[in-house]
Specification:
The protein has one domain. It is 76% helix and 0% strand. The termini are far apart.
Amino acid sequence: MAAKTNYSGITLLRKNTLPAVLLVLGLVLAAWLREPLERLPAAVDWDTIITLCGLLLITTGVKESGFFYLAAYRISRHIGSMRLLALFLVFLSALLSVFLTNDIALFIVVPLTLSLQQISNDDYSRIIIFEAMAVNVGSALTPIGNPQNIFLWHRWGVSFPVFVQEMAPVVAVLSICLLAATLLCFAPAPIRVTNRQHPGVDRVLFGLSAFLLVAFIASIELDFEKYFLAVVFLCMLLARIRVILKTDWGLILLFVLLFIDLHLACRLAPIQRLVAMADFSRPRVLFLSGALMSQAISNVPSAIVLAKYSSAFKIIAYGVNVGGNGLVIGSFANLIALRFIEKPRKNLLFHAYSVSFFLVTLAIVYFYLVP
């Protein structure tokens, strides 16, 4: 029993290494900038944190209901090739992210992928990485696909159809590259199904979770999610308390610390001088700035910073959406996906694919789409 507890402790520590690093980094930056600790919570986008809490609770409920396992069981009976499975899941991720935002799409698709992994006993880490790339691609198309688009859409002042029309060329390039990468990286090998037993489903928990998911998404659109989160928490507390206990609250801590660290990093004099030196009147400089800055401070803060220096919102959108792939910090969706992967050297594996995809798409968009 002690050995099991020790193993669980090591696993917990390993899974929360990044939050621990971010905590230390935040304290060092706060001390260096002489930022009072009581001011740090103001740097957190609490609306985003509330949304993540609700989605994490609800999707954990769906996962615990066994529905994803049942869906995986049925998919495994109709898709027999690893390449076809990867294409299906990658396409599904991209499609959902167009309408439901990139993080919601991941919270739906990744648990399904993990259930497929459980059925086959194969390692589906690469598929999850490609799903993260896919939601970054698909969410770039619409003004509601991701946080940076929502921000730029309001600043740009264009209609929904015009935004989609302007983003369509870059999304087409990204989609073609994603399709080619998926076909190249996944062989048409047969899927090994080791568990043919028909799984059971907690129908009450699934029905409750499905209803709460639809209602929570509606509450986000109505700017009511901060109040509805309490309803979600209360429902899970009364119906299935194990859902609350099994929710990955470390992911929420990760995002809180990330907001604080990015806020402090943007105040550093070298970063401010670097931004001030750039000639943002040149479209290619602006595009590269958005893409490369996203690799350092993520794409949402990059969009906010660049909007202060330029009104060429389409070029900014091109840059920060291409920059969503690459380093894991490029997009919050990458951090969510990586959190689900239980594999040694997962960061190395993620960057081998994501950085390669970023460099190829960066070059194509730079030379062919940016004037």
